[in-house]
């Protein structure tokens, strides 16, 4: 994390910023967040992220007492105070200090800047490995601070050599990853899940970019069998951009699949994404 952060109206050194132990984010894991990048001192898609952050807060009945203009001003000031360049900012809205340990009140708002570290170039050249994992997020449209399952299964990912999970629901549909969306390419179409997922900002802009490139798009459920039979697969997020999936592994429930090298649609999107604003 970079040195200057924002907490409830004040710009503070990260070492001076504190939350009380009664905050519901600590006691119950109750809160929401959003994360976006900035490049050369310019925030990317900040209005989209602020809108999703506000929707997430409304979904957990947490008042966000900042206008979009105020959020934009905080972002610009944080980037300036931390030296510009490339980085990321995380908005966090906690459940607040709960006297009874359960009832949200007076949320705490934080904006936390981070240095940015791009995933290794290897994963863009050769692709990443994903693990199919049965799990359904409790509130898929809300970007909550609850990442218990994604963190819990880190040892399982390491055991099979996977970098990311892909969550499969009870009906056999592949929904999303722990911190990313995913898409497949099949028969010349880019197919992206849309139901019961977090609607990623990078996902939105990649689909917009693909449409501008003349690529046919479908937004619908994707079955496990469709994923395993796909021509290409992509994982995407603010940190990753568009990254090829070239290996799918699983336990005994599902089959494995290797795609070989990144496919032509993925390579086109990756190249176009570099210049997309």
Structure characterization notes:
The chain has 277 residues and is an alpha+beta fold. It has two domains: 4-115, Aminotransferase class 4, branched-chain amino acid transferase, N-terminal domain (D-amino Acid Aminotransferase, Chain A, domain 1, 2-Layer Sandwich); 121-275, Alpha-Beta Barrel (D-amino Acid Aminotransferase, Chain A, domain 2). The chain has nine helices and 15 strands. It has helices spanning 24-27, 46-59, 68-81, 121-125, 148-152, 154-160, 201-212, 224-228, 264-275; strands at 4-7, 10-13, 31-39, 42-43, 87-94, 109-115, 128-134, 164-168, 174-176, 181-186, 189-192, 216-219, 232-237, 241-249, 257-258. Strands 7, 8, 9, 10, 11, 12, 13, 14 and 15 form a nine-stranded mixed beta sheet that branches. It has a six-stranded antiparallel beta sheet with strand order 2-1-6-5-3-4. The chain starts with a strand and ends with a helix. The model has no long low-confidence stretch (mean pLDDT 96).
* CATH topology group of the largest domain: D-amino Acid Aminotransferase, Chain A, domain 2
The fraction of residues assigned to DSSP E strands is: 25-35%
Mean pLDDT: 96
Query: Considering the protein shown, what is the CATH homologous superfamily of the largest domain?
Result: D-amino Acid Aminotransferase, subunit A, domain 2
Largest sheet: 9 strands, mixed
Rg, rounded, reads 19 Å
Sequence stretches where pLDDT stays below 50 over 5 or more residues:
none
Question: How does the overall form come out from the CA principal axes?
Answer: globular
In N-to-C order, the SSE pattern is EEHEEHHEEHEHHEEEEHEHEEEH
Please give the number of β-strands: 15
Tally of domains? 2
Oligomeric status:
single chain
Q: Number of DSSP helices? A: 9
């Amino acid at each position: 994390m970079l040195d200057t952060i924002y907490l409830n109206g004040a710009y503070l050194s990260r070492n001076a910023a504190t939350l009380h132990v009664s905050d519901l984010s600590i006691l119950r894991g109750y809160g929401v967040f959003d994360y976006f990048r900035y490049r050369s001192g310019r925030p990317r898609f900040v209005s989209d992220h602020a809108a999703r952050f506000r929707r997430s807060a409304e979904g957990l009945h947490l008042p966000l007492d900042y206008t979009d203009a105020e959020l934009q001003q905080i972002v610009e000031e944080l980037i300036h105070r931390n030296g510009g360049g490339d980085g990321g900012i995380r908005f966090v809205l906690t459940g607040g200090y709960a006297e009874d340990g359960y009832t949200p009140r007076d949320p705490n708002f934080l904006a936390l800047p981070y240095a940015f570290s791009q995933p290794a170039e290897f994963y863009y050249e050769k692709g990443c490995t994903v693990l199919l994992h049965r799990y359904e997020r409790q509130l898929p449209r809300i970007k909550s601070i609850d990442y218990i399952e994604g963190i819990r299964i880190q040892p399982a990912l390491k055991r099979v050599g996977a970098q990311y999970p892909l969550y499969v629901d009870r009906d056999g549909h592949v929904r999303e990853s722990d911190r990313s969306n995913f898409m497949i390419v099949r028969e010349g179409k880019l197919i992206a899940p849309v139901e019961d997922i977090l609607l990623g900002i990078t996902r939105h802009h990649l689909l917009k970019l693909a449409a501008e490139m003349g690529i046919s798009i479908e937004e619908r459920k994707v079955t496990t069998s469709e994923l395993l039979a796909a021509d290409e697969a992509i994982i995407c997020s603010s940190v990753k951009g568009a990254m090829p999936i070239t290996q799918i592994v699983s336990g005994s429930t599902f089959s494995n699949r290797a795609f070989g090298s990144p496919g032509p649609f993925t390579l086109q999107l990756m190249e176009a994404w570099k210049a997309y604003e």
